[in-house]
Amino acid sequence: MAAAKEFKGGLEVEVKRNELRSRRSKAIKDDEYTQDGSVDRHGRPALKSKTGGWASGILLLVNQGLATLAFFGVGVNLVLFLTRVLGQDNAEAANNVSKWTGTVYIFSLVGAFLSDSYWGRYKTCAIFQAIFVIGLVFLSLVSYLFLVKPAGCGNRLTRCGNHSSLEIGVFYLSIYLIALGNGGYQPSIATFGADQFDEEDSQESLSKVAFFSFFYLALNLGSLFSNTILDYFEDGGRWALGFWASALSALFALLLFLVGTPRYRHFKPGGNPLPRIGQVFVSAARKWRVEVPLNSRSLFEVDSNECDDVTRGRKMLHTKGFKFLDRAAVITPKDCIEKDGPQNKWLLCTVTQVEELKCILRLLPIWLCTIIYSVVFAQMASLFVEQGAIMKTTISNFRIPPASMSSFDILSVAAFILFYRRLLNPIVSRLRRTGLTELERMGVGLLIAIMAMIAAGVVEIYRLRFINSDCANCESPSSLSILWQIPQYVLIGASEVFMYVGQLEFFNEQAPDGLKSFGSALCMTSISLGNYVSSLLVTVVMEITTKDDRPGWIPGNLNKGHMDRFYFLLAALTTVDFIIYLASAKWYQCIKLQGKCEVSDDEEETFDV
To answer: S-S: 301 plus which of 30, 258, 326, 351, CB 3.0-4.6 Å?
Structure first.
């Protein structure tokens, strides 16, 4: 009897020891592997020590800086290339630049769709960067062989000769290949960089938030070289040299990206989201007479601790609002449910699937309010440059290229990122635990944008007052120094830190797991639509303000126009947009996630290109 008790007691001790060992083993495993569902390039759970972190993050930041240098080596002076080399007038060139820039960011939707649905972020980045390099090489060749003729033309004094339709066609093909490559790559690289940090790890989650600020800083520092050194050469007529430098920078960025392949962390693509969204709409419509239960636990969800079977991401908790969509997750007698979920997903959807659609619908009003801000931002690459080109651009014997004034925007971005992260955010965090939220920062960005447009309008008023009446047709008739543009560029830079960095963080955090690149693409497409709206607005304003005796607000000769009124119009529109944004931000409801998403051993997939 005593022996039996002793044996039983020893058995219980051994069971407890095994449980303790199991817990320790799990703790060690949790400490070694990422907990957010990320995997290595072979599809296995990612080891923290061998993948991701700042080792991968810094590599991607350098990649972004070099790719941005290449992109802005073309984009920052494109308006001057169109006027000086191709012979377009100011309004036509400004509209073409706005359309091209808009197309760049429209292509971001293509990249985001392929990234989230089929290719994954790594493959998407590699393929579109290769297209980007090809476009830059084409542009360099066509400029060197055909467009910049005679050699050295295209500066502020010498215009280039006429060009054939074929030459102009190849030029547009090359710049739109650049648009496709850069646009498709941008939303994926931002999200891919954030993927390198485990948000379930307290230390890495802080690094993930910081990454977006450094990402935007790298973007701006990369364009600094383009806005100074390359701009100086291109403004002097050495366009082909500037374009070749951009092509080499993009090629080096691609090679650097490929070098880091073994260390990257990945998330598996979640499949085409369009059928998932359509299933919710169809199921809800077919059950429009069904009563939604008061207890959300009665709604359908798969009983699994792993990824959601449909979205392949973390499960999302039920939220209030858009109640008509909840009908898609109501279980009725007609629904046939087996162990692995509903047989017909067009009849019954999971709560996570419904919440994914709700999340997108909630993001749309916020996204729409960012478009007017992008209209303001678009002026920096078009009207700001044209305004600076007819101001006094010389200091002693040194000439300041008008496009290089955007370097003050870049320096402003760098300064305000450091100001926000090192000073403002720590102070606000002491007063309020959450600090400034992304929505609050975006609102601040809108306010600063209003100030920037007012500053630009005031500068234009004074520029017109300093015109030499005896020199109405001179290249730079105003004696007002171009340095008076510094405040408007600095204010735009400050607004970017609050608006665009806030946007990147907000859309990445609030987008469902299966649509993270789509979240980044929303930021890009707001810039795209902003450029299209800017082009449309210029056309409408010129149509309304051009009369027989008046040349309009933005004529070919800006000394006869009133660009200041256009700037004040943008300030007024942004003010109205800010009021609408406040209402949208107050209404917004944040996404609610259930927890980490585990990776099944039978779902391994290789991410090599």
So the answer is: 351
Question: How many angstroms separate the CA atoms of 480 and 463, rounded?
Answer: 6
CA distance 337 to 489: 60
297 CB-contact burial (10 Å; exposed 0-12 / middle 13-18 / buried 19+): exposed
> How far is 254 from 261, CA to CA, in rounded Å?
11
Q: Where are the alpha helices (DSSP H) in 328-401?
A: 351-369, 371-378, 383-389
Which of 533, 567, 417, 555 has the alpha carbon at shortest distance from 473? Answer: 555
Residue 590 Rama label (left phi>0; alpha psi -120 to 50; beta): beta
What is the spatial distance between Cα 40 and Cα 354, in angstroms, rounded to a whole number?
30
The answer for residues whose C-beta is within 8 angstroms of residue 282's C-beta and 6 or more apart is 346
Q: Which two tokens stand for residue 321?
A: 């609002």
Place of tokens 């994914």: 356
Instruction: Decide if 65 contacts 222 (C-beta within 8 A).
Output: yes
Q: What is the DSSP code string of 451-520?
A: HHHHHHHHHHHHHHHTB-TT-TTSSS-B-SBGGGGHHHHHHHHHHHHHHHHHHHHHHHHHS-GGGHHHHH
Rounded distance, CA 537 to CA 94, Å?
12
For the segment 483-504, what is each residue's pLDDT rounded down to a tens digit? 999 999 999 999 999 998 888 8
- Lowest model confidence (mean pLDDT) among 21-35, 258-272, 402-416, 594-608: 594-608
Distance, in Å, from the CA atom of 268 to the CA atom of 468, rounded to the nearest integer, reads: 64
Name the 3-class secondary structure at 598.
strand
Q: What is the pTM of this model?
A: 0.76
Structure tokens belonging to residue 5: 């008790």
The SS3 of residue 544 is: helix
Q: Is the peptide bond before 150 cis (omega within 30 degrees of 0)?
A: yes
Q: Kindly report the backbone phi and psi dihedral angles of residue 450, in degrees, each rounded to the nearest multiple of 5, phi listed first.
A: -60, -45
State the residue for tokens 């830079």: 493
pLDDT recorded at residue 131: 95
For residues 358-368, give the mean pLDDT. Answer: 89
Query: Rounded to an integer, what distance in angstroms lies between the CA atom of residue 516 and that of residue 121?
Result: 10
> For the residues 453-468, what does the mean pLDDT come to?
89
Asked if residues 90 and 83 have their Cβ atoms less than 8 Å apart, the reply is yes
Task: Evaluate whether 89 touches 551 at the Cβ level (below 8 Å).
Answer: no
Q: What are phi and psi of 395, to 5 degrees?
A: -125, 115
Instruction: Please state, in angstroms and rounded to a whole number, the distance separating the CA atoms of residues 446 and 573.
Output: 11
